[in-house]
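Incident log, support desk, overnight shift.

02:14 A customer reports that sequence design results differ from what the structure should imply. Their input is reproduced verbatim below. On-call engineer (initials T.W.) acknowledged and began investigating.
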């Protein structure tokens, strides 16, 4: 009221202490306003309980989370640590940690590994040229004669060429042969020509050549072998003479 009266003469009340207190109260109210919004629910709940004496209170509020219940007791933590880590409990007795039983799978792994190895050997044997020649020799089926040759490699090459031709004709596209496929095809043709030299099962010299050719593909070079510097190169460049250093 004094401030309102003195507002008629602002020059006299400019530095009055009442205005400083009003500014301080306003600042406090602005800072407390967010906290008041956060605590409004709890304050209303406590006022409702105080006015009603606990009657008519919503029972669903009793199931609200209680942060105090989240903290475990010290004794319970010690007991759990003792069971997991194998240390002694309250009584000081050592208790071994509980370990789950694990089956021994080393024998099963060895059996699976041996089964895979046998399967690879069986597939390799089925693709063997000598075995195919023996099957053709003693089988009662009619002999299959191809224009390119009669060996197993020739049949495999012819089958791949037929599949490639059918794919190109059905989709009207040209399949581009990569350099790696060309080299592989040339090697298989060389094997086919070597296999045609067998002639019959009695020609053991040619059979030995085929076996040596098959071994050379899986041979691992050793550091003792001298490295070839000059001479003719193998593969598709066998007709080119390399310079000798």
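02:41 Re-run completed on a clean worker. Output:
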């Amino acid at each position: 009221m004094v401030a309102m009266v003195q507002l008629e003469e602002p020059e006299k009340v400019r530095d009055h202490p009442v205005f400083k207190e009003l500014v301080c109260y306003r600042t406090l109210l602005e800072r407390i306003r967010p906290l008041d919004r956060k605590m409004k629910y709890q304050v209303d709940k406590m006022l409702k309980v105080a006015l009603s004496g606990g009657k008519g209170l919503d029972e669903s509020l009793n199931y609200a989370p209680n942060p105090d219940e989240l903290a475990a007791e010290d004794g319970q933590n010690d007991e759990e640590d003792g069971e997991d880590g194998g240390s002694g409990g309250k009584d000081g007795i050592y208790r071994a940690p509980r370990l789950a039983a694990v089956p021994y799978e080393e024998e099963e792994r060895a059996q699976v590994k041996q089964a895979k190895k046998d399967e690879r050997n069986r597939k390799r044997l089925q693709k063997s040229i000598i075995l195919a020649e023996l099957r053709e020799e003693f089988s009662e089926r009619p002999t299959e004669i191809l224009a390119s040759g009669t060996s197993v490699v020739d049949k495999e090459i012819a089958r791949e060429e037929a599949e490639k031709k059918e794919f190109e004709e059905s989709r009207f596209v040209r399949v581009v042969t990569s350099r790696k496929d060309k080299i592989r095809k040339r090697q298989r043709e060389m094997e086919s020509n070597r296999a045609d030299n067998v002639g019959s099962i009695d020609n053991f010299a040619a059979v030995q050549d085929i076996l040596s050719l098959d071994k050379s593909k899986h041979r691992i070079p050793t550091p003792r072998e001298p490295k070839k510097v000059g001479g003719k190169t193998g593969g598709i460049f066998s007709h080119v003479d390399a310079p000798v250093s």
